Amino acid sequence: MNAVVNSSSFPSIAIPKDLPSAERLHAAAQVSRVHFEHLLGFLSYLDSASIAMVRQAWEYADFAHRDQWRSSGDPYITHPIAVTGICANWKLDAPALAAALLHDAMEDCGITKQDLSERFGETVADLVDGLTKLDKLHFNTREESQAESFRKMLLAMAKDVRVILIKLADRTHNMRTMGDMPRSKWGRISSETLEIFAPIAHRLGLNQTYRELQDLAFRHLHPWRYETLDKAIHKSRVRRRDFMQRVQTEVQAAFDRLALPMRLSARENTLFALYQKMVRQHLSFAQVTDVCGFRLIVPRTTDCYTALGILHQLYKPVPGRFKDHIAIAKNNGYQSLHTTLVGPSGVNIEFQLRTESMHIVAEAGVAAHWLYQSSPTAGGQETLNTKWLQSLLDIQTETRDASEFWDNVKVDLFPDSIYVFTPKSKVFSMPRGATALDFAYAIHSNIGHHATGAFINGEPTTLRGELKSGDVVEITTDPDATPHPAWLGFVRTGRARSKIRNYLKTTAHSESAALGEQLLAQALREEGIAQLPQDETAQQALWQALLQPGQTQAEILTDIGLGRSAASLLAQQIAAYLAQQGQRPDALLLTQQRFTQDKSQQTTLVLDGQNQSATHYADCCYPLPGEAVVGYLGHGDGLHIHGCDCAVAQRLRERDPERFIPVEWSEDSAQRLHSAAIALTVQNGKGVLARITQVLADCDVDIRRVDMEDESAQHTTVLRFTVSVHDLQQLEATLRALRRNASVLQGVRVLAP
Question: Which of 91, 166, 173, 79 is nearest to 129 (CA)?
Fold first, then answer.
């Protein structure tokens, strides 16, 4: 790699702020030219045509940013040039460097994407557009605006990873020059860097950038702690000098004896990593033993394992502190052997062993595609992080809300990973804490949707079973199984979360639309309309006349099914429209609906007993097949089914009588299980709970929940069960069987007061 470009490598030329405007602009132009000429010294890897494109982008950006200044007083153009210099470290191509020079042009200078496309081509315009924030759009909150900005940036990154490389270069230079910004901005920008940009850099394998962003953010978030720890590191570095030299001499001699070429270098943990460890493990600086370590680079992959044997012969390994990231690479492409040894004086030393190509990938991640294209390890950009980048697109297709999208993505930014296997030995990288259900969705969304259980290392477990590295996982499925809202409470990956949410949302909308269609049909009958026009052209004209701009028929039916809109109002509008077209209400049907006392002739919704997204069975009364029920159309959350004797339903009827609709059970509703609540007053004694559960089992009743009062000192106590039964008849038979038990003093069904 060439010399590293950083903020201090550019010439520092101060421009007095009290210069006349014309002279100051002239001086700014001179500074811009000097900085750009300095940048050209790092672009020797480009051909002449590419350099000409970069120069054209600089001239355009220089003109666009004229008379714009940074907080430090420097011409603003020095920032895009410095960002481009960081991108030049990764040897990015000419379009990326041009986009780096122009990355603020659309946001700050009023230049449009069309302008850039015409002058520099669509690639450069797309890159700049992906980097542009959305400040010109209206959002309700700053958090919503920020989430939308990151959504746009990450999706652009998924299509072209150069977007995030430029963005990370931009953030790195801003952090390097943070001292020139108002101190009031330090906390927000540094926190954002630690929580978002540093994890993204780590996820993409940009280890050098990741470490620098962490330390810069730490320095500005906690200046005093940073300074104190930095001084302690400096003092310990002086004390460690002889120790480090001894280790290097002994290791070099061991490899020279076996004539194995290698390159050994010392490495220090970042201040932020040390600070995190001290906080997490409640250690003082003196108690931290792994402040430094060594990196050993050898020619070939097999040499890594040979070198490991040499080191283990030289120093004793610490048990449990060896990791093979070569055989199973990290999900950001990182490969190395890690081992911790007991060195001279009993001090632990960590060694990292890798090849040169692995080292390039370890430091530069996805940027290794440009840095080291000849390497078989780094030569294919598609081999690095493609699964995560593709998952961003998958999550986006199912998550239109920016905040929800960002919540899902943040889950996958945590660096800790585990590695699990399919029965056919295919390896999957998962975040620590991932469950069997996360694994099912990682394989395929259809497997996740229909998952019912899992086998981990041959042992049966539930879908919420937590995975560990090395587990062999097999998922069991059922074609009739579907996602449950409770799954969102334990899945860990963004992919699983977005797939489940999308399924539930889609299902809820389709069920709500079907319910809305039934409610509208009932409301139309009350207006004397048996059915809508059957002619497709006439029906299309009807909906076009009724719908608002941008609204669809499915959307308005969904709103009715959710209770957001009244079916009666839409039915009246339809009746008025049909009257204008010459269609009169059916007088007989109108009479039946409005004046008959026979309610059986009114349209009644039929319940099949399924716990659908659009239909909710109230947990205040747990209605059962075999008893009279009524439907209450909630305010935006679908249809709620209550028993007719339910006190909650009676209070709702007094308040919103127009929201109640007639419902009845279908003939096969008793074939499904329904929840019910019972309370048993029992005598305290040994084995009482066991005898009661045996009675429930004999009655073929499943227990879903049990609560017991803490009254162990009294002679009696109350047990409350939530059970699953088929219908009211089975519940009553179960209560009779329970009352016959000698330990049960009283058994009743529980309804809301």
Answer: 166
Runs of H (alpha helix) within 377-493: 386-398, 402-411, 436-443, 445-449
CB 713 within 8 A of CB 725: no
Active-site annotation holder among 23, 37, 107, 356: 107
Reported residue count of the chain is 753
Averaged pLDDT score across all residues of the chain: 80
Domains defined along the chain, listed by start: 7-224 (1.10.3210.10), 228-380 (3.30.460.10), 386-501 (3.10.20.30), 503-669 (no CATH), 673-749 (3.30.70.260)
Distance CA 102, CA 109 (A): 10
629-648 mean pLDDT: 83
d(CA 272, CA 364) in angstroms, rounded, equals 20
Please confirm, yes or no, whether 108 is among the known catalytic residues.
yes
700's torsion region: left (phi>0), alpha (psi -120 to 50) or beta? left
Whether 97 shows a pLDDT value over 50: the answer reads yes
> What backbone phi and psi angles, to 5 degrees, belong to 743?
-80, -15
* pLDDT at position 599: 43
pLDDT of residue 90: 86
Label residue 639 left, alpha or beta by phi (over 0 means left) and psi (-120 to 50 means alpha).
beta
- Are 78 and 70 spatial neighbours (Cβ–Cβ below 8 Å)? yes
Pairing of strands 348-355, 292-298: parallel
Task: Compute the half-sphere exposure of residue 119: CA atoms within 13 Å on the CB side of its CA.
Answer: 19
248: helix, coil or strand? helix
With a cut of 80, say whether residue 592 has pLDDT above it: no
Listed range (163-167, 236-240, 686-690) with the worst mean pLDDT: 236-240
DSSP string, 701-732: -EEEEEEE-S-TTSSEEEEEEEEEESSHHHHH
Q: Are 121 and 50 in contact (CB under 8 A)?
A: no
Residue 438: band (very low, low, confident or very high) from pLDDT cuts 50, 70, 90: very high
Residues 13, 27: Cα–Cα separation, whole Å? 9
402-411 and 494-526 helices cross at what angle (nearest 10)? 150
Catalytic residue at 129? no
The token duo for 623 is: 């209605």
Position 594 pLDDT exceeds 80? no
Whether pLDDT at 350 is above 80: yes
Q: Which of 18, 104, 108, 586 is catalytic?
A: 108
Instruction: Give the whole-angstrom CA distance, residue 668 versus residue 662.
Output: 19
Measured CA to CA, the distance from residue 408 to residue 388 in angstroms comes to 12
Report the C-alpha gap between 210 and 193 in whole angstroms.
Answer: 10
Pairing state between β 473-477 and 451-456: antiparallel
Measure the CA–CA gap between 93 and 87, rounded to whole angstroms.
9
Question: What percent of the chain clears pLDDT 90, i.e. is strictly above it?
Answer: 21
Distances (CA, A) of 655 to 150, 633, 642, 648, 649: 45, 13, 15, 11, 10
Return the structure tokens found at 176: 């390097």
> CA torsion angle for 218, 224, 226, 232 (degrees, to 10)?
-170
> Parallel, antiparallel, or unpaired for β 348-355 and 316-324?
unpaired
**pLDDT, position 281:** 80
Between CA 719 and CA 697 the distance in angstroms is 16
Residue 370 has pLDDT above 70, yes or no: no
Q: Mapping DSSP to helix (H, G, I), strand (E, B) and coil, where does residue 214 land?
A: helix
| Mean pLDDT computed over 706-732 | 83
